Amino acid sequence: MTPEQLLARMAEQRAHWATLPGGQRVRVHRPPEVELPALARGVHVEHVIQYACGWEGFTEATLLGASVGSADAVPFHRDLWAAWVRDNTEAIAPVAKALADAVTAHLQAREATAKN
Questions:
Q1: Using an 8 Å Cβ cutoff, are 15 and 56 in contact?
Q2: pTM (predicted TM-score)
Q3: What is the pLDDT of residue 96?
């Protein structure tokens, strides 16, 4: 594999999905171990924004409201995500939980490997 392919595989291994109350899904990358201390006091909206890397089911209507936006899918853009999630706070908890669960699973796997 090329370095780019290896990096893509490594990123894929850190990827997890969170389902939002409206049925949309947000993809997040588990933070690398060196960044885990920043989550010691919990996962906050800035982490939810920082580690988001994709979404499914987001349309212009999702972002602008059904009376203004169309049903056309919108490609993920971190600034759009940041603006939307800061104004739709019900989406923060499921994404924060997905991040926390990913970190917990990673640390448990590391611990299990160390015991072997």
A1: no
A2: 0.88
A3: 96
